[in-house]
Amino acid sequence: MIEIVKNISNILVYFVPGYLVLILVYRALKTKMSDDNYKVTAFSVVISYLINELSLYINSIINNFISVTLLNVIIALIVGLLCSYLIKRDIFTVEYLENSGSILSFFLQVDSYDVACIVCLKDGSRYTGYLEGVDDINNSQILLSSFSYYDKDGNKISSYEDKESYYILINYNEVHSIQIRTDKIE
Questions:
Q1: What string of pLDDT tens digits covers the 186 residues of the chain?
Q2: DSSP label at 154?
Q3: Which residues on adjacent β-strands are paired with residue 143?
Q4: What distance in Å separates the CA atoms of residue 12 and residue 135, rounded to the nearest whole number?
Q5: Is 72 exposed, middle or buried (0-12, 13-18, 19+ CB in 10 A)?
């Protein structure tokens, strides 16, 4: 306990700003924060370090007008809110073109699935739904829930959006591209 009290200023400088940014970003993504405490701590420390360096630079320009710790929190709020705004505005929609290993390696990095996506197949048809998992043993299949299927002309052929127990398993070698969405798929 005494160690925590002695290091509270370091915690405020090198952990809290990054953690604040992560909270705001995860809320905008509407996902649960990672259960891996080491990963959250590492991201928080890296983000906080960058924010602290920016705060020290700004504070040197304004002749130490404001406390660095307070400036860290202000910058963290601005960065977190800006990222949240950009996420909600659908600025961060990502499209991976071509069937390459980078698509699956990206999904394997995702901590909490249930990410809205559009899976475009090589024949021109597509599935829309929520990513539930990836076969990380063979890197060969993608599992979607709450999905719909569209033919190559864009006509909705089947819809299981309201059926929680329906899933589709898509072979990765049939995939042309995948769009990751931060908003609800229509």
A1: 677 777 787 777 888 898 888 888 877 766 667 677 788 888 888 999 999 899 889 988 888 888 888 888 899 999 988 888 777 765 554 444 344 444 444 544 444 445 788 888 989 999 988 877 766 555 577 888 888 999 999 899 998 888 777 888 888 778 888 877 655 555
A2: S
A3: 133, 169
A4: 40
A5: buried
Look at the block and give the residue holding tokens 């190559």.
152
Q: How far apart are CA 9 and CA 4, in angstroms?
A: 9
Contact (Cβ atoms closer than 8 angstroms) between residue 69 and residue 13: yes
Q: Measuring CA to CA, how many Å separate 74 from each of 20, 50, 69?
A: 10, 14, 9
For 95, phi then psi, to 5°, come to -120, 125
Q: Which DSSP symbol is given to 66?
A: S
3-state secondary structure of 136: coil
Q: Which helix (H) or strand (E) holds 34?
A: none
Residue 153 corresponds to which tokens in the numbers above?
């002309």
Helix/strand/coil for 24 = helix
Neighbours of 104 (CB within 10 A): 22
